[in-house]
DNA sequence: TGTTATGTCAGACTCCCTCG
DNA sequence: CGAGGGAGTCTGACATAACA
């Protein structure tokens, strides 16, 4: 057992995929076995499992090649990297205009995940760690994401999570959540009024991809006493610019 | 320590090429 | 055209490792 991972078969699977990837066309079991220094039956069993999950394909001649599933997974990574690259300059510009921290989030199940940020240089500022998470109902962009998924999904979310309270301002009532998310959808932006943390307020908008799907959420976070309503138009404009840079036009 | 997952071995099977 | 042989593939049985 090598020390690169605690699961040998995962290491071997990765090795086999790397070997197959070296060949532009297809490659035989024997060659994969020789290059991996694994017994052919071991290689065969692992490849059979990979084929079952579409990570590997076999042609009519029984030769192996990488499967379409990898392309599918790769497109997710490419989309996320592309999103961050496109977002960075727009986020920095928004941060410079407002002087407050700007966050980029994506939805993952019942949470938003912070994937990029442009931090304010003010002494007192709001700062989210990249990779940290927050429930949908306590964030501005989370409410917009819930609104976009429809009232039924919004109710399901509320039942699944029980709408836990983080502050005295957190929305804990289903009907109020539905009302507030619908309102946010109509307005094209949402507030977080100290719902995740006392003293912190946000303004959030959605970012759409070229297919019109929700790609991310863009938000500005600030101490509540510094947040201004006139920022709404500026944040909306930044969200529109980012959507357009991803190929989405209204 | 028993169960489950994983790996190895050995041989059967299949396909294809060569030769008579 | 069919038998023989070799290369490659597949699978059953067993061994070993990992885990609860």
TrEMBL record:
Protein's UniProt name: Transcriptional regulator, IclR family
Organism, as annotated: hydrothermal vent metagenome
IclR-ED domain: residues covered: 69-248
Keywords annotated in UniProt: DNA-binding, Transcription, Transcription regulation
Presence of the UniProt keyword Transcription in the record: yes
A biological process from GO: negative regulation of DNA-templated transcription
InterPro entries documented for this protein: GAF-like_dom_sf (IPR029016), HTH_MetabolicPath_Reg (IPR050707), Tscrpt_reg_IclR_C (IPR014757), Tscrpt_reg_IclR_N (IPR005471), WH-like_DNA-bd_sf (IPR036388), WH_DNA-bd_sf (IPR036390)
Taxonomic placement: unclassified sequences, metagenomes, ecological metagenomes
HTH iclR-type domain sequence ranges: 7-68
Recorded coiled-coil stretches: none
Molecular function terms from GO: DNA binding; DNA-binding transcription factor activity
